């Protein structure tokens, strides 16, 4: 959609660069909390190993889809084109409820995930969550984002683990960014009565309920990543209590969590980590080592994080004895939730877990009572991104999962977890109008235009912009132009667009399809940012890739490429 042209400003830079900006200062509309359910699919495969499943994840991503959750080698949830059936071990892709009989021999994780998918596909999920999925109450409790000892995070990044030998990993820390393939370890904490009375014992049906809620919360993150062109797939492992099918004694502890304060969580966490073989006596070190080890379990993943879940069915309290209930350490290594979390209903667990998962990957709180104040500075856990959506510095803060558990994200949040800004299009236009044009001849000049959505911006803040233009033609001919720099250019939220012209089609370009890619890096302007490293977004590695066509000399330059209904001609992917 072409943005409004009000308050246009023209800026000439050098001899060949011209940029246009159009900004709308209004707050973005509240997003549809059920958007991820559109075309949600159950992907059944013939994979026999997680390595094969990992290859299928890559295959689906390469063909425009995304796997949100890998349940088992043969069962995945996400968004996959139907025409992939029969390729690369993909047996079927379902968009409608499927009978359990179609998947004989299911384990408990597969059975629970199929039940969850059927709820979504039938529309029952929407009905159950109506009025609950976006919770608009003002949050008044203290911050639920805690800071782990920085030495632990540094040790993670340096790979200094003392417990077990680790295979080579693809990334320096356990949860530096929410990108690629992520191992999510869900541990259902169960008391064995050895020290505390065994007051509450997990009901297996309640475990299944939380499994569905976790699937929904991680699906939320994967669906958002897909809109930003970021691959994100969770490989989920549930460690259920021993009395339930598929359960394990490794989750047993001598303590009943709900009888204690949050500050005593090392009691049960150390018990459980020791059960898994990680037993230094420090909850941060042991959980970090556990996460690092879990990254090496087939298939090797980029990242790994753990969530502990305590059981507190009615009439148990809905908070720990000191008032906390759900929290996480920024950048890892773990989050701690309860079955019933204070005023949040069990059917809102997916929102609470989504919020805490954001913290695991470095996101800040944004609600005022949290005491958030990182409006002009960032840190390494948050990829040096500031958070101008914090209510304490932005009275016009916008809906965000990190504010009031709302099913939306702001620009600061996506920068914190290593994503780029949402570029809604990268396309080619003529040099005398803003009408999309997709056919050009060698030697002809082209404007390259990219649309950037800026969901939120703190008052008085402006953003510096750097961008590059990359072109690829037939026979491997490539060109790069830039970087082009604009200081203090973006000044308000809304849709901004940038274009560059004067770069002609090379005379040596052969006939056929060509592509253009615009890459942006947007930072907060100001002396408070160390050497310009305070980011609005960590950097846009790639925009949507626009396609155009090179025609032979003398060919008709009128656009005749395959039509695209949104942009009036030309093809975008």
What does the model show?
With 573 residues, the protein is α/β, with parallel strands linked by helices. The protein folds into 3 domains: 1-28 and 375-573, Sandwich (Immunoglobulin-like); 35-99 and 109-129, Alpha-Beta Plaits; 145-363, Collagenase (Catalytic Domain). Helices cover 20% and strands 25% of the residues. The protein is built from 10 helices and 22 strands. It has helices at residues 50-62, 108-122, 124-129, 150-158, 204-227, 266-275, 283-296, 349-360, 401-404, 411-416; strands spanning 9-13, 17-21, 41-45, 66-72, 75-79, 90-94, 145-146, 180-188, 190-191, 232-239, 252-253, 303-310, 327-329, 334-338, 422-429, 439-440, 445-454, 463-472, 478-490, 494-504, 512-524, 546-550. It has a 10-stranded mixed beta sheet, sandwiched between helices. β18 and β19 form a beta hairpin. α5 crosses α8. The protein is globular, with a radius of gyration of 25 Å. The two termini are 15 Å apart.
- Give the C-alpha Rg: 25 Å
Count structural domains.
3
CATH class of the largest domain: Mainly Beta
Give me the secondary-structure category.
alpha/beta
By DSSP (H or I, 4+ residues per run), the number of helices equals 10
Low-confidence stretches: 1-29, 150-172, 538-545, 554-573
Shape: globular
Beta-strand segment tally? 22
* Average residue pLDDT: 80
Helix content: 10-25%
CATH architecture identity of the largest domain: Sandwich
**N/C terminus separation:** 15 Å
Sheet of most strands? 10 strands, mixed
CATH-derived topology of the largest domain: Immunoglobulin-like
Q: Note the beta-strand portion.
A: 15-25%
């Amino acid at each position: 959609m072409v943005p409004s042209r009000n308050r246009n400003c023209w800026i000439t830079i050098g001899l060949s660069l011209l940029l246009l900006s159009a900004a709308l200062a209004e707050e973005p509309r509240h997003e549809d909390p059920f958007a991820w359910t559109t075309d949600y699919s159950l992907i059944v495969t013939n994979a026999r190993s997680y390595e094969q499943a990992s290859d299928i994840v890559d295959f689906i991503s390469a063909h425009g889809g995304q796997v949100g959750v890998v349940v088992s080698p043969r069962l995945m949830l996400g968004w996959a084109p139907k025409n992939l059936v029969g390729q690369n071990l993909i047996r079927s892709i379902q968009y409608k409820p499927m009978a359990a009989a179609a998947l004989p021999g299911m384990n408990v994780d597969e059975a629970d995930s199929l039940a969850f998918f059927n709820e979504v596909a039938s529309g029952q999920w929407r009905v159950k969550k109506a009025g609950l999925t976006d919770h608009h109450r003002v949050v008044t409790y203290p911050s639920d984002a805690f800071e782990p000892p920085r030495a632990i995070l540094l040790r993670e990044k340096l790979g200094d683990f003392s417990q077990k030998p680790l295979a080579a990993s693809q990334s320096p820390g356990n949860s530096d960014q929410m990108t690629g393939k992520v191992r999510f370890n869900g541990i259902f904490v169960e008391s064995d009565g050895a020290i505390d009375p065994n007051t509450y014992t997990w009901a297996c049906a309640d475990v299944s309920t939380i499994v569905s809620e976790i699937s929904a919360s991680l699906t939320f993150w994967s669906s958002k990543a897909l809109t930003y062109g970021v691959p994100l797939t969770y490989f989920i492992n549930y460690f259920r209590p021993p009395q339930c099918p598929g359960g394990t004694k490794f989750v047993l502890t001598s303590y009943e969590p709900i009888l204690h304060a949050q500050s005593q969580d090392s009691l049960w966490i150390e018990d459980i980590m020791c059960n898994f073989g990680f037993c230094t006596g420090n909850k941060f070190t042991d959980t970090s080592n556990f996460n690092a080890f879990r990254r090496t379990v087939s298939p090797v993943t980029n990242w790994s994080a753990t969530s502990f879940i305590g059981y507190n069915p009615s009439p148990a309290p809905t908070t720990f004895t000191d008032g906390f209930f759900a929290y996480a350490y920024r950048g890892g290594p773990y989050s701690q939730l309860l079955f019933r979390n204070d005023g949040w209903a069990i059917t809102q667990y997916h929102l609470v877990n989504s919020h805490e998962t954001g913290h695991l990957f470095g996101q800040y709180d944004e609600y005022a009572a949290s005491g958030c104040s990182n409006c002009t500075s960032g840190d390494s856990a948050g990829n040096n991104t500031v958070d101008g959506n914090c209510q304490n510095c932005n009275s016009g803060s916008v809906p965000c999962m990190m504010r009031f558990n709302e099913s939306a994200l702001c620009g600061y949040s996506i920068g914190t977890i290593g994503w780029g800004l949402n570029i809604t299009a990268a396309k080619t236009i003529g040099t005398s109008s803003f009408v999309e044009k997709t056919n050009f001849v060698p030697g002809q000049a082209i404007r390259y235009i990219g649309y950037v959505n800026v969901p939120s911006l703190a008052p008085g803040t402006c953003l510096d912009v750097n961008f590059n233009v990359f072109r690829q033609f037939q026979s491997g001919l490539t060109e790069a132009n830039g970087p082009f720099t604009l200081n203090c250019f973006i000044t308000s939220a809304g849709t901004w667009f940038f274009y560059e012209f004067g770069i002609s089609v090379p005379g040596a370009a052969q006939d056929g399809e060509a592509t253009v890619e615009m890459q942006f890096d947007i930072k907060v302007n100001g002396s408070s940012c160390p050497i310009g490293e305070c980011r609005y977004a960590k950097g846009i590695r790639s925009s949507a890739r626009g396609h155009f066509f090179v025609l032979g000399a003398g060919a008709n330059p009128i656009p005749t490429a395959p039509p695209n209904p949104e942009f009036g001609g030309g093809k975008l992917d």
